[in-house]
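Why does residue order matter? Because the sequence determines the fold. Keep that principle in mind as you read this record.
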Amino acid sequence: MVAGLPVISSSIGGIPDYVVPGKNGLLASPGNGPEFFEAIRRACSHPLFSQGAVDPATFAQTRDYLSPERMAQNFLTAYRAALEKT
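Structure:
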């Protein structure tokens, strides 16, 4: 997602937080082969995904959200909050 390539992934864990269906990828239920097959088929006919591209605005937002600087700040904030509760 950060590289600007469309993804097809399981809708499990934190992945749905980053994959915006139809914008930067597609989601399928974990372990559901037919659903994954359908997602691959849809990606192949998607106007952007079939060209190896994603929605530019979604790409910019995801790239900023997952940047090393933003992630470091988020971890630092979480650690400080945890320390304040001890």
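Residues 68 and 74 are 10 Å apart (CA to CA).
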